[in-house]
Amino acid sequence: MNQLQQANGPGESAEDEGKKAQEEQMRRDLLATVLDSAARERLARIALVSAERSRQVESILLRMAQTGQLRGRVSEQQLIELLDQMEDAQSKGSGTKGAIVYQRRKAVLDDDDFDV
Question: pTM for this one?
Answer without folding.
Answer: 0.63
